Recover the amino acids of this structure.
């Protein structure tokens, strides 16, 4: 089976969030099940062709309503996966970052969908390659299922199955009507789209016209069928529930491996973490200019500092607990200015207990996972989340809200000998819930070390690899093909 993943991001070429990690790592796992999985993304101006050994493939003139643009297709291999990169001035090829202002992004990503269709035709006509399944991701490429059904002719198009993955339904590509009209894209007459007033919503168009739809965790697949999580797309998702699958994102367990991670002060595994992991905590404390000691519990945060992540709940709780409990805090992240200021203020007010690194630092992130005792992730909503999985793999116990992928991956402590549990879970979106749960975790750390270590070992042995998820994707692709043939 041949599968092409179309996306705005893919690691290691262009990464803003978790979308890039999924698109960059899933194809390798799919190949183990006999899937010829390839990826196509824009060839952004910041991508270095020498670093990735990118070579030109072909170019052609693309005629569209706004004129004629040259499209250049290049390719390279990463871990035996073929990546196609599409360049077409002025839309893609000169930019210094993935995303820009809203109106320009809308115009150029609508163009990207059209140019991708033309590139697929060129690949077929040149006898290079053509997929059985087109797997599109988020709103940036979600117009493709409609274009396949509405504008393409020939057996290869009518037999091409379309799968859409929703990584975060909060980003939808809304109010695209003017851009679609400008690009000459008309006729979005799906009755559900028309009934719900969603004919100008790019993600909604993808939901309506895809053969199968997936989200990045089973819990999130349930949540987005209701307005509190699915917003205006919830009724459309509910109508397509029979074709909806929740497939948990996986980790690249070779990359995220505390036994071989070169950034750590001392490597460790589930067999020897009790003796060897503490060296990483001491290293982190020293680097953060905090008092060094094994007895004081260390809370870690590695995150984009955004409202979604629940830090409006965590900040009051942290301030109260830092003032009255023996604990430490290390924060790494950037994001919304008010949250950056709030964490900086914690650093200033509790300099002997708290340190905030308002930056991006991949090596420091891994050192925090390996050195902290409690990993705080109090998200209001979290489609999947990767931080809690990384923390578990590195021996930290997550403290999370019961939502989305957090609910699917963190098992709440049983408040006993830890016969069950890999972390701490709260439900209510209140600062008091964060503070109470964190108090509970701090008490456990100091009073029941054997229970703590049992949960650490259980978390480190949990299987968050792509193995099962890749199998689920393969089954979904087969279902999409069967639906298309029918």
């Amino acid at each position: 089976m041949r599968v092409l993943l179309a996306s705005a991001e893919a690691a290691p070429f262009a990464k803003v969030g978790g979308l890039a990690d999924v698109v960059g790592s899933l194809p390798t796992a799919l190949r183990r099940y006999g899937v010829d999985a390839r990826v196509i993304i824009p060839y952004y101006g910041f991508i270095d062709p020498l670093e990735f050994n990118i070579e030109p493939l072909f170019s052609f003139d693309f005629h569209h309503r706004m004129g004629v643009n040259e499209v250049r297709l290049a390719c390279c291999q990463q871990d035996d996966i073929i990546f196609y990169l599409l360049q077409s001035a002025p839309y893609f090829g000169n930019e210094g970052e993935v995303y820009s202002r809203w109106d320009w992004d809308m115009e150029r990503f609508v163009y990207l969908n059209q140019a991708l269709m033309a590139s697929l035709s060129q690949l077929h006509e040149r006898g290079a390659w053509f997929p059985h399944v087109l797997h599109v991701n988020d709103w940036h490429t979600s117009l493709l299922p409609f274009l396949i059904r509405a504008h393409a002719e020939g057996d290869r198009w009518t037999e091409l199955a379309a799968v859409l993955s929703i990584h975060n339904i909060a980003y939808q590509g809304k109010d695209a009507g003017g851009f679609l009209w400008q690009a000459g894209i008309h006729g979005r007459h799906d009755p559900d789209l028309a009934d719900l007033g969603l004919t100008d919503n790019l993600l909604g168009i993808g939901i309506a016209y895809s053969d199968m739809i997936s989200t990045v965790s089973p819990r999130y697949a349930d949540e987005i069928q209701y307005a509190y999580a699915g917003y205006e797309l919830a009724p459309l998702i509910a109508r397509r529930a029979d074709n909806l699958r929740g497939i948990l994102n996986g980790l690249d367990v070779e990359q995220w491996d505390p036994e071989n991670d070169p950034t750590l002060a001392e490597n460790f595994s589930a067999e020897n973490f009790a003796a060897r992991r503490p060296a990483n905590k001491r290293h982190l404390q020293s680097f953060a200019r905090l008092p060094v000691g094994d007895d004081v519990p260390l809370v870690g945060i590695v995150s984009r500092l955004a409202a979604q992540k629940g830090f409006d709940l965590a900040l009051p709780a942290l301030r109260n607990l830092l003032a009255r409990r023996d604990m430490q805090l290390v924060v790494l992240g950037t994001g919304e200015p008010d949250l950056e200021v709030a964490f900086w203020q914690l650093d200033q007010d509790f300099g002997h207990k708290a340190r905030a690194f308002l930056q991006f630092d991949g090596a420091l992130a891994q050192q925090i996972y390996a050195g902290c005792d409690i990993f705080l992730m109090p998200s209001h909503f979290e489609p999947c989340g990767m931080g809690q999985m990384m923390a578990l793999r590195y021996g930290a116990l997550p403290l999370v809200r019961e939502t989305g992928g957090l609910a699917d991956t963190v098992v709440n402590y049983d408040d006993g000998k830890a016969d069950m549990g890999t972390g701490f879970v709260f439900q209510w979106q209140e600062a008091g819930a964060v503070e109470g749960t964190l108090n509970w975790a701090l008490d456990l750390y100091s009073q029941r070390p054997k229970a703590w270590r049992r949960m650490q070992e259980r978390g480190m042995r949990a299987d968050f690899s792509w193995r099962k998820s890749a199998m689920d994707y393969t089954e979904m692709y087969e279902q999409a093909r069967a639906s298309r043939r029918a």
About this structure: Residues 111 and 183 are 7 Å apart (CA to CA). The first strand starts at residue 2 and ends at 6. The chain has 21 helices and 15 strands.
